[in-house]
Amino acid sequence: MTESIQTAMPEATGRDSLGRAASPLLFPIRLAIGAVQGLALWALYKATETGPYVDDMLPPRDWPASEPTLFAPLVLVFLFVPVLLLAGVSRMRPRTLAIWAVAATAALALLGWHDVARQSAETLRYPPFFTAPLFLFSAAALFIGHHLILPADLERRWVAAFPTYFDTAWKAGVQLGLSIGFTGAFWLLLLLGSELFKIIGLPFLSNLIAEEWFTIPLTCLVFPVAVHLTDVRDGLIRGVRTVVLMLLSWLLLVMTVLVAGFLVALPFTGLDGLWNTGSATALVLSAAAALIILINTAYQDGRPDNLPPAVLRIAVRVAAVLITPLVILAFWGLALRIGQHGLTPDRIIALACAVVGLAHAVGYVYAALRPFWQRDAAWMTPLERTNISGAILAAALILVLFSPLADPTRLSVNDQVARLERGAVTVEGFDFRFLRFESGKAGLAALDELSRSTTPSIAQRAKNVIAASDRFEDAVTGAQARRPVFAVWPSAAALPEGFLTPVDSEDSRYHCTADDECAARPIDLDDDGIEEVLVANTNIIRIWTRQPDGVWVDAGAYRTLMCGTDSGQNDHRIWLRSSDLRPVAPSFPDLDLGGGRRASPEGVLRCPADEAIGTVGVRPQVKLRTPPR
């Protein structure tokens, strides 16, 4: 197989993509790397196969899946390090590649171990045990690190020329995309072939594809083949890269106009709409990142022969200036949210991204505002140093945040507890469940300490949450009954007798407080002369009826869809106060299922045609009720 592929690709036996003599062993080496990766990943997968559950305990697993602090680092190492070796062999000097592979292995092992070690036992139930952010940011850090080391090794100096960074990084990005596409196309064809054999009564290929011992190693072998094919066809890769850069560079004009229009409109529309999205920081940072990427597609390596047209040079300068206000908005939004609700892991990670954005904004605006009469060949030269320093900063921040040095979960737990202790948040408004279910061992330790607080309400809530079995269980189970708080509509109306009596924590009305007010409306829904009560929060309208013994029960709910694009108009409390609200006959009757059970169509909000969003595929739901005995 090796000889046939080598024959089909004469470049592989001639010179490699860097102009050096290519070794005839290059392809076998890459296949060997893929084979080792495939066997290792299959062995790790095999270790996760579970036996039968015993009561509610976790199913037994083989070693090393039985040791999460070992299993997670192994998965990360065998997922990423072989890819680094595939990308580095024949490009880096063997000694440099070996040192880089060892360093990457150590870093991944440390990050994987820490990510698992900081979690509580309840979150370590299923492989691969590490969290999604670690996977994504580790991949980003390795890509950045590899393309800081490779150019330096090629030029035999600590900091290479910017064109080398540009050439290696963008070529690797295109090559990675093509290799993944090739692997995906291979599997599509294999699945198609298996179906063809299957319809003529030969299911052997379908059965083979269903076996992990076949699919995992085969995938890890096909990917190196794709890498090798794309690597030796260097002219093809450069041609594809040139087309991609050209297309993206012209999109810079579109993005610049959109961002400029957004910033110009802000003084007239105000910032409330932006802050109310709940994701303002992510939006503006994404826009800033898009501008940075598109600016580089136009600038490319800065050489005179790659100088873009005049209209793109103007767009680059304008876009470089626009990054600064976007980053300022990101910091502003983070400051508001942190001031209101304290630190969370997501906000800490967003803050790190904003710091990287700020570093680029400073360098880009300096490059853009340099005197315009300088020669075009050096028109945005400071951008090059900014990109290199920004890449180093990004990789360093990832290592710091996902290691014990500045664990975002630990920092957020400390900040949230400090806010509670100094009275910045009330006991009722404090999210004890975050400590119990979302912040690992640091949160559990803090919750245990709060359970011994000298403030009775804090200690009781902490004990209740410690006793909860899952994140969505009532966090105040066992707390004393309390009187719910409602905004009654119409304001002159009075709620029926007995509705405002204190209720326990298992009653949904328990969560209607002064900090989280519910709307209530007395109304006779079934025209029997007895008023029911509709209770609405932001997401649902519930029906309360009084039984003959005077006990109020939750009889059902109106499940609604979102109408319109303005989140404010979808507040169910607003709908409850509508003068148009009235009972109407159902489109479908109830069903008598026997045995005292009845099924009735669940209420579904029907939006006006010009407001309806997200309504495709909606079907009436059926709710089973058992009448009280």
List the helices and strands and how they pair.
Blueprint: H1 2-8, H2 26-47, H3 68-88, H4 94-117, H5 132-155, H6 162-199, H7 204-209, H8 212-232, H9 234-269, H10 272-276, H11 280-299, H12 310-341, H13 345-368, H14 382-401, H15 408-421, H16 432-437, H17 440-450, H18 456-467, E1 486-488, E2 518-523, E3 532-536, E4 541-546, E5 552-559, H19 572-576, E6 591-594, E7 597-601, E8 603-604, E9 622-625
Parallel strand pairs: 1-2, 5-8
Antiparallel strand pairs: 2-3, 3-4, 4-5, 6-7, 7-9
Helix pairs in contact: 2-3, 2-8, 3-4, 3-5, 4-5, 5-6, 5-14, 6-8, 6-9, 9-11, 9-12, 11-12, 11-13, 12-13, 13-14, 13-15, 15-17, 17-18
Identify low-pLDDT runs. 1-15, 52-56, 609-629
Number of DSSP strand runs: 9
Number of helices: 19
Biggest sheet descriptor:
6 strands, mixed
Cα distance, first to last residue? 76 Å
Structural class: alpha+beta
Q: What Rg, in angstroms, do the CA atoms define?
A: 31 Å
Q: Could you explain how this protein is built, in words?
A:
- The chain is α+β, with helices and mostly antiparallel strands and 629 residues long.
- The protein folds into four domains: 2-232, no CATH class; 246-406, no CATH class; 412-467; 486-625, no CATH class.
- Helix content is 55%, strand content 7%.
- It is built from 19 helices and nine strands.
- A six-stranded mixed beta sheet has the order 1-2-3-4-5-8.
- It starts with a helix and ends with a strand.
- 30% of the residues are buried.
